[in-house]
Amino acid sequence: MNAQSFGSIGQVAYLVEDIDESVANWARYSGIGPWTVYKNVTLDGWWKGQDVKIKMNVGLSYQDEVQMELIQVVSDGPSPYHNDDGSRIVRMHHMAWLTENFDADLEKAKARGLTQVFRAANAASKVTYFASPAEPGILWEFIETTPMLKAGFEQGIAASRAWDGKEPILQLIDFSQL
């Protein structure tokens, strides 16, 4: 590993129009699966100086050790998942590092000239996005590695290695039903 990097890339994320269709397409065309799908996830965060509440559907699977994340934002309003005109972004969105030195890595990113544009936290972890005007359209994310998050990655990696390629969805969790 390059000593100048933040470590191994832990996640690559794409913003999609329809989570169900995209999960099926990714399983069919790339062979990546099975997917855990979370519907109606609410995220409280901070985006470019303002508090935001974001509602989304998320699909997670793995290719080797890298988590593939599909995000379908379902809320309106300012967020890292919308263009400045309010339209939803659909494309590759960010890559992320899992970090056990969250605050130190954030300071290292700032020292390199990256600008923190988003942050959020929940019971599992903290995340933050950085941007650079030199690379518009891509965000760099840092995810705090916690025991709960690490266990989720390990379970997902094991499931992807054992997947028989049949059912694309391993688990569906709808937070509106909880």
Overview of this structure, please?
The chain is α/β, with parallel strands linked by helices and 178 residues long. The protein has a single domain, classed as 2,3-Dihydroxybiphenyl 1,2-Dioxygenase, domain 1 (Roll). It has three helices and nine strands. Strands 1-4-3-2-6-7-8-5 form an eight-stranded mixed β-barrel. The protein is globular and about 45 Å long. The model has no long low-confidence stretch (mean pLDDT 94).
Task: Summarize, please.
With 178 residues, the protein is an alpha/beta fold.
CATH structural architecture: Roll
CA-based shape? globular
Spans with pLDDT under 50 lasting ≥5 residues?
none
CATH topology: 2,3-Dihydroxybiphenyl 1,2-Dioxygenase, domain 1
Structural class: alpha/beta
Number of domains: 1
- What are the secondary-structure elements, in order, as H or E? EHEEEEHEEEHE
β-sheet strand percentage: 35-45%
What is the tally of beta strands?
9
The radius of gyration over CA amounts to 16 Å
How are the elements arranged and paired?
Blueprint: E1 9-15, H1 19-30, E2 35-47, E3 50-63, E4 66-73, E5 91-99, H2 102-111, E6 115-121, E7 126-131, E8 139-144, H3 147-162, E9 169-174
